[in-house]
Write a structure and sequence with these properties.
Blueprint: E1 2-5, H1 9-13, H2 16-28, E2 32-34, H3 44-48, H4 52-66, E3 72-74, H5 77-89, H6 94-105, E4 107-109, H7 110-117, E5 126-133, H8 137-142, H9 148-153, E6 157-162, H10 177-180, H11 182-199, E7 203-206, H12 209-221, E8 227-230, H13 231-235
Parallel strand pairs: 1-2, 1-3, 3-4, 5-6, 5-7, 7-8
Helix pairs in contact: 4-6, 5-6, 11-12
């Protein structure tokens, strides 16, 4: 099965190890992974800030880039959600709306693809310790991917999962929200850090690098000794 990787800006610029783990994981599951170099930002920051026309230009580039892919897989629920949003952005423009829908229909968040398409629930991973999992807003509320991460993590040998208190609460990142509403964002991430610490976990795991960067950065400033891992890194652990 050929998979086209949508790596996302945050992974490309800040979390390259997550990208490498994603490729290695997919290859270990029998996928041939390709990476189109013309991919750039999906347009989400502009779109979420109200600059719809500017977002359309980025979206058109991404539609062209991934048009011939069999499956598009991304280690980000947030960015997968943006691809799924494309048909709404181009509503009323038949050519681009149809092309956007074709892309949305073949786009999957990483754990969603592994469980729902590959039909794999145990990837053979091993990680010793206790972890808690942060459910990101876009992935659960908009993309609707809720169970796949927990299904896969439940089969990681040596790993105990502790339920995160108030897991439904946003971490305060929200892309540009954390910049525009910094005092509110800071209080929200402090609440999330307190919830993580209540679990006594060794690891905080998530599926969106924006959330992990926000929570991890705050924990580092507060000198909290919890290791932050993207789920791709956990599932690629042996």
């Amino acid at each position: 099965m050929k998979v086209t990787l949508f790596v996302t800006c945050l992974i490309d610029m800040f979390q390259t190890n997550v990208g490498k783990a994603t490729v290695e994981l997919l290859e270990s599951l029998g996928c041939e992974v390709e990476f189109p170099e013309s991919q750039v930002c999906c347009g989400q920051p502009a779109y979420n800030s109200g600059y719809v026309e500017a977002a359309k230009e980025a979206a058109k580039n991404m539609i062209r880039t991934f048009e011939h892919a069999e499956y598009v897989v991304t280690p980000s629920g947030s960015c997968a959600t943006m691809f799924v949003e494309y048909p709404h952005i181009f509503k009323g423009d038949p050519e681009w709306e149809n092309r956007a829908k074709a892309l949305a229909d073949k786009t999957y968040e990483l754990t969603q693809f592994i469980v729902d398409v590959l039909k794999v629930t145990d990837v053979g991973a091993r990680l010793e310790g206790t972890a808690t999992y942060h459910t990101s807003c876009h992935m659960t509320r908009l993309l609707g991917v809720k169970d796949a991460p927990f299904t896969l993590l439940s089969n990681v040998k040596g790993l105990k999962i502790e339920k995160l208190p108030n897991a439904q609460n946003c971490c305060g990142f929200g892309g540009t929200f954390s910049v525009k509403m910094m005092p509110i964002s800071e209080q929200m991430v402090d609440e999330k850090v307190n919830s993580v610490m209540q679990t006594g976990a060794d690891y905080l795991i998530g599926a969106d690098c924006g959330c992990l960067m926000n929570i991890g950065g705050r924990m580092e400033r507060l000198d909290k000794n919890v290791r932050v891992l993207h789920i791709a890194q956990v599932l690629n652990s042996r």
